Amino acid sequence: MSLKKQFLKSKPVCKVTFLISEEEAKGANKVELLGDFNDWKSKEAIELTKFKNGTFKVTVDLETEKEYQFKYLLDGEQWENDWEADKYVSSGIGAEENSVVIV
């Protein structure tokens, strides 16, 4: 998993690319991104594009100078954190943690 950030000079936006390898996707057919940026609503989940090599990828525009909690949802069943997130915070549900991207 990886996060790639591209800051725009013309406006306070950062293009953040979320990437999950085939191994990290654990054989999933569908990977969705949920977090603060879509209020954790499954109906507004951002679906990652699956490539022939088995990786999943999506780029999202996020407002700068903020932190966003997020997780990946594999096949609508299994939650996964990003192994290369900027940091992790408690989700407030037991020992669970959420990934955080800082832009």
Describe the structure.
This protein has 103 residues and is mainly β. Helix content is 4%, strand content 50%. It is built from 1 helix and 10 strands. The chain has one helix spanning 22-25; strands spanning 2-7, 13-20, 31-35, 46-47, 49-50, 56-63, 67-74, 78-80, 87-90, 97-102. The strands form 2 sheets. Strands 3, 4, 7, 8, 9 and 10 form a 6-stranded antiparallel beta sheet that branches. A hairpin with a 3-residue loop joins strand 7 and strand 8. The chain is globular, with a radius of gyration of 13 Å. The mean pLDDT is 94.
Provide keyphrases for this structure.
single chain; 103 residues; mainly beta; 6-stranded antiparallel beta sheet; 4-stranded antiparallel beta sheet; 1 helix; 10 strands; 4% helix
Summarize the structure.
This protein is mainly beta and 103 residues long.
What is the average of the pLDDT values? 94
Net shape: globular
- Radius of gyration (CA) equals 13 Å
Based on secondary structure, the structural category is mainly beta
